[in-house]
Write a structure and sequence with these properties.
Blueprint lengths: L2 E2 L5 E2 L11 H38 L3 H20 L3 H20 L2 E4 L11 E7 L9 E6 L1 E4 L2 E4 L1 E6 L2
Parallel strand pairs: 4-8
Antiparallel strand pairs: 1-2, 3-6, 5-8, 6-7
């Protein structure tokens, strides 16, 4: 029976020091070393490809957390617009909100989830339903929070109310 050395390669059992290795023994050692070398090369190639994929994904979505922080600011602006009664303050907040949305769109961040859109469970989170016979099923009737896409990644689902008859 063969033993494995520290590299995991089969080595012939050591017998007496007088016995020489045969051609067959040497061929076995060579084939096991070649097999190990091929496996290591394939493993390294897989590792390299996996790391390249992870790094490209990190670079592609590098601003995701930063953008998520700004979405909270945008939500607070929207709440401020809804809560103030003075028209001058509302107009100022609307201008700031529109400017922030334009800046986000230049960074490939796009909002979605508007009243009247069809409900899509991959994009929207239905918080509740309403039943209005004048409106078709699975139509968004109210939006609590807009959803946002960053490039092709959904970074926040829209929180909506959906109509069900």
């Amino acid at each position: 029976m063969n033993k494995k050395n520290k590299n995991g390669v089969d080595t012939p059992k050591k017998t007496s020091p007088k016995k020489k290795l045969t051609k067959k023994d040497l061929e076995l050692i060579i084939s096991s070393l070649e097999d190990k070398q091929l496996r290591l090369k394939a493993e390294f190639d897989n590792f390299r490809k996996r790391k390249e994929s992870e790094i490209s994904s990190l670079l592609k979505y590098e601003g995701k957390n930063f953008i998520l922080d700004f979405l909270n600011v945008l939500d607070n602006l929207s709440r401020g617009i809804d809560s103030y009664k003075e028209d001058e303050i509302k107009k100022a907040l609307v201008l700031v909100k529109e400017d922030l949305i334009k800046k986000l769109e230049t960074k490939d961040v796009k909002p979605f989830g508007k009243v009247g859109d069809s409900f899509d469970p991959e994009l929207h989170e239905a918080l509740t339903t309403s039943s209005d016979s004048k409106i078709e099923d699975d139509i968004i009737v109210e939006v609590y929070e807009s959803g946002y896409k960053y490039k092709d990644l959904i970074i926040r689902h829209a929180k909506v109310v959906v109509n069900k008859k």
